[in-house]
Amino acid sequence: MLPKLRISSFLLKRLERVKLQCSGCLYGVFYGDGTLLLLSFNVEASVGQLSYEHIQHKFPAELDLCGLVKFGDCSDTDAHLSEVISSVDITDNPIVLQCQLGTLVGLRASFLVHGKLEHVPYETMEAPQLFNDFCFTRLKCGFYLHTLPTPEAIAKEMHVLRKRVADGSLVFNVSQTKIYVSSHCGTQHKSFNSESLIEHLIAEVPIPAETPSGNKKKAVTSTPELDKHYGAVGCAFDVINIDVLRCRTREPAAGDAASHPALSMCITHEEPSKVQVPLELESMAILCKKTKLLRLYDVLIESICRSLRLFEQCLTERLTEQETVTKPKLLAPRIYHFYPKEFGHFLSCAYLEELSDDEPSVQEKRKRLHRQFALPVTRPYFRRANQCRFQGDIVAADTASWTPLLNTHLGVRPSGVTDGKEYLVNGNYHYYHYLQQQVQDKGWGCAYRSLQTICSWFLLQGYTERAIPTHLEIQEHLHKINDKPASFVGSSQWIGSTELSMCLQGFLNVDSKILHVASGAELSTIASELAMHFQTQGTPVMIGGGVLAHTIIGVDYCVQTGQAKFLILDPHYTGADELSTIQIKGWCGWKGMDFWDKKSYYNLCMPQRPILY
């Protein structure tokens, strides 16, 4: 019986954007009673050179090679069909998709049955169902790799390490619970049995609940929403955090004990000394929530092994680049998780810690990823600053150092524009406002705070690693470029949209478009231009008028009626960083035309994305 075929809506949108004749590999999850869900693909000019095994290691465990995709009249698919098909392990009937260029019209799906393609229908899995039916595990653990600095030695030692991982000695603990998963006892919990599912485990995970004082405590709720407390920012998947332990009580039976060797003499030759490389590992797996818990141990082991293969690939690539170096240095690798919104799933990369994002070899690695996943090379996806920010990590970081609120517009009340379409900021940002960081800027610092919010957007999207500029640094820069006198430095003087554009150019090398509006009454006339800005650039916009500055992070616009409302982030707020207060009181919310001063002219600073990958 052929598998039932489903295709993620994210994948269909990606397929539709391919406009060049090429072919590539498909990756999916096999779950339930014979359903194959297609989630991802990669392309290259020649399928035979794709090294799809290496690409698969970047995906969460259980997201596996399952077939091929052909765009247009690409002629190389048939030549490499048998090669790729022979590597498909999750089904006896690999899938082949045939797509027209730039459209989903005529998309044809076929399973390979006894060497012949058999056409099958498919269902589209929309994003809400995907987020509801699937979840991810995320675990952290550490190892030491003792090896000689050669590709052959690394491959050998990594093989030994993977065997050690898979020998049954590891025990997993679901974070914040007393649920343990081991090779010989399965998933241990008083309420679980052989028929228990992943969704039953999720129901046992405690999540932070608000106390009357506003502090967070651990409490089990009846309907866990793990995505809001342990998931990645901007991602609606539930994420199960896993801790890793090593079982120390599995002693070999007496009959299995190794015999003592007879006393002997030998002559040894001194071997080159091995180096020790720390491997701080973080791995993920995707699971249908209806999957039985009996499978969880094997899936977690496979996720670790995939990360180890990523490390191996990263280390050997570096050694190959250093072939002419007499004594190559082994650098410590680290796993970074990414969640490109176009994907609808996580993807992991291993980077060497001492090599910056601007190293030519690292840039080339990212460029290759963009090409393989049919992504534009005009914006970053896989720079370190693009890595996923998990809610649990953010809470932990906040206890150590102050961080502004993130994405305060999420969850605001609708604008109420009839038949309007929302155009919003594309990406993450921090909300900066009056009196933060003990700066007494009430009454003069609103534009400075708007600039800080805009700079946070470029930082969080991976365009820069520069820290957010302080008020003093902003003033010093404007004096340095001769825009302001020396007396301006350390003062409480205002700045406007033009000064913001100068600072963005000086600090981040970011160009800005300045838009002039004669009065607040005419702001509705630029709603379509703002909509286009958020569609193409996606950056926050600073607007200054009279003595006030605000940040626009969205517009809701009806083309037919011309009605528009603006999503405003107000830097004049002076209270505590409490999201509910900020949204209820309107410090972040939709504003109509009555919000603007009809007698004041306005200037908008609209930052443009640099071309960067």
Index terms:
single chain, 613 residues, alpha+beta, 8-stranded mixed β-sheet, 7-stranded antiparallel β-sheet, 25% helix, globular
* Number of H/I helices: 15
Give the strand content. 25-35%
Helical residue percent? 25-40%
Unreliable stretches: 46-50, 210-223, 250-263
The strands making up the biggest β-sheet line up spatially as 7-6-5-4-2-3-1-8
Mean pLDDT: 88
Shape: globular
Secondary structure tally: strands: 25
For the sheet with most strands, the description reads: 8 strands, mixed
Query: Class by helix and strand content?
Result: alpha+beta
Compose a concise summary of this entry.
With 613 residues, the chain is α+β, with helices and mostly antiparallel strands. It has helices at residues 9-16, 52-56, 77-85, 127-133, 151-165, 198-203, 226-229, 296-321, 360-372, 391-400, 446-460, 471-480, 497-508, 527-536, 579-584, and strands at residues 4-8, 22-31, 35-44, 64-71, 95-99, 108-113, 116-119, 123-125, 134-147, 170-174, 180-182, 186-188, 207-210, 216-219, 238-246, 275-288, 333-338, 347-352, 421-424, 512-517, 541-545, 548-557, 564-569, 588-591, 602-607. 25% of the residues lie in helices and 26% in strands.
Explain the overall architecture:
This protein is an alpha+beta fold and 613 residues long. Helices cover 25% and strands 26% of the residues. The chain contains 15 helices and 25 strands. The strands form five sheets. An eight-stranded mixed beta sheet has the order 7-6-5-4-2-3-1-8, sandwiched between helices. Strands 19, 20, 21, 22, 23, 24 and 25 form a seven-stranded antiparallel beta sheet that branches. The longest helix has 26 residues, at 296-321. The two termini are 45 Å apart. 36% of the residues are buried.
